[in-house]
Design goal:
The chain is an alpha/beta fold and 420 residues long. Helix content is 44%, strand content 14%. The protein has two domains: 20-127 and 303-370, D-Maltodextrin-Binding Protein, domain 2, CATH 3.40.190.10; 135-300 and 376-414, Periplasmic binding protein-like II (D-Maltodextrin-Binding Protein, domain 2, 3-Layer(aba) Sandwich), CATH 3.40.190. A hairpin with an 8-residue loop joins strand 9 and strand 10.
Length: 420
């Protein structure tokens, strides 16, 4: 009876497929922009494929965990994934990603800004395609900087100047210092802006060399701990994420904040909902990420999403076609306008609609291009967690003690001598 039923039903019901393939795209949470883009790409394929969008958890570490579990089991349902750049090396090293061939590699990197382009390679092979990028800017209240007599847009503006100005005006500075990936973003940006790096010789894998115990690491620790113990620290700084720092910045005590570009549209949304006065938005200015030392340009944080094809997909060509559509210049522009997430391709910032929506478009583009990626290593999760554990809470961070502790702890974790 079962055999007869199989003979008269759609083949897919008996373990096969009929018709165009359905590609499964695992995405990070957004405002639905990736789902809408997926539908547009499917429509443009003229029936070559359709797309089923599956949304991953909010937390980047949880996103990684869910994908790793599936890929370790050689799950063929992961055709495409939106991957946080720090995890690209780990996934590629484990054989979870399908590298792009030379022709696609050229197409997927053409016109891409330097920052996101660096995150998409592993062992000189393009294993992911930059989709959208992100960076942090220095946001400031115009009224506060005018009263303090400082210019955050000046080329040599430093963290020390910013903290001193906030203290002098009895205001607070918004940062992300909770024990999560956003804290690692801040620490890494300080270290690389000071000319150092958290870990070196990453090609050696577990034998990589922690380098955070250095003058650059000490400079970062001095800034983190110094701010946390100063009057310019916002309430509950060591539990603050992006939204907590945004709230402090928009409040009566706000002065400066380092945060992603979404905060500008979010502030305008607060005005529309009645949660914030228009005068607050009118008082917001922006500048490049502050320097650690006056004579060394900052390397702003780098975020975003790369697209990667699962190694076990049954539809590699269609998955690559979807990547090609999703990362096109037109898609970069459309997604930036739809989601508010900055584009990975430099030319997107010249679009008139983008420039109208993002008056700081040129600054975002330059900051992404000059950004300092977090460590590119297959053991990134161990590296990041080692930093988060030893640098938290922020008010206990001191130089040179904390960087030295981190280097020892990280080395022991990588060598398997200590558990996280």
């Amino acid at each position: 009876m079962a055999l007869a039923l199989c003979a008269t039903t759609v083949v897919a019901g008996c373990g096969g497929e009929s018709g165009p393939p359905v590609l499964t795209w695992y995405v990070n949470p957004d405002n639905g922009g990736q789902k809408r883009l997926a539908q547009r790409c499917a429509d443009a394929s003229n029936g070559a494929y359709s797309v089923d969008v599956q949304t991953l958890p909010n937390d980047a570490s949880q996103q990684r965990e869910q994908l790793v579990r599936r890929l370790a089991a050689q799950d063929s349902s992961i055709d495409l994934m939106s991957l946080d750049p720090p995890f690209v090396a780990e996934f590629a090293n484990a054989g979870f990603l399908r590298p792009f061939d030379a022709a696609d590699a050229t197409a997927f990197t053409d016109g891409v800004l330097d920052g996101p382009r660096k995150t998409a390679y592993w062992k000189d092979r393009l294993v992911a395609a930059p989709f959208w990028a992100n960076t942090q800017l220095l946001w400031f209240r115009k009224s506060v900087v005018q009263a303090a007599g400082v210019d955050p847009t000046a080329p040599g503006f430093t963290w020390d100047e910013m903290i001193k100005a906030a203290e002098g005006q009895h205001k607070v500075i918004g940062v992300q210092a909770n024990r999560y990936e956003g804290y690692m973003v801040w620490i890494n940006a300080l270290v690389v802006s000071a000319g150092g790096q958290i870990i070196g010789n990453v090609e050696a894998g577990k034998n990589a060399t922690p380098e955070i115990a250095s003058p650059a690491g000490d400079a970062a620790a001095r800034i983190v701990g110094g701010l946390a113990r100063s009057p310019a620290a916002p309430p509950a700084m060591s539990t603050a994420g992006e939204e907590e720092s945004r709230s402090a910045f928009q409040g009566k005590s706000g002065s400066f904040m380092v945060n992603w570009p979404y905060v500008y549209s979010a502030a305008k949304g607060d005005v529309a909902s009645g949660a914030t006065a228009q005068s607050v938005v009118d008082d917001i200015g922006w500048a490049r990420y502050p320097r650690v030392t006056p004579d060394q340009p900052s390397k702003p944080p780098l975020g975003g999403i790369d697209l990667a094809v699962g190694a076990y997909t049954k539809h590699p060509q269609q998955a690559v076609d979807l990547v090609r559509c999703a990362t096109s210049l037109r898609s970069n522009i459309d997604y930036m306008l739809d989601s508010g997430n900055p584009a990975a391709k430099g030319a997107a910032y010249d679009d008139p609609k983008v420039r109208a929506a993002f008056p700081m478009a040129d600054l975002i583009r330059q900051s992404i291009n000059d950004a300092g990626p977090r460590p590119i290593t297959p053991y990134y999760n161990d590296v990041s967690t080692s930093v988060q554990l030893t640098w938290h809470p922020a008010d206990e961070v001191r130089a040179p003690e904390t960087p030295k502790e981190t280097a020892t702890f990280m080395s022991e974790v990588l060598q398997g001598k200590r558990l996280l």
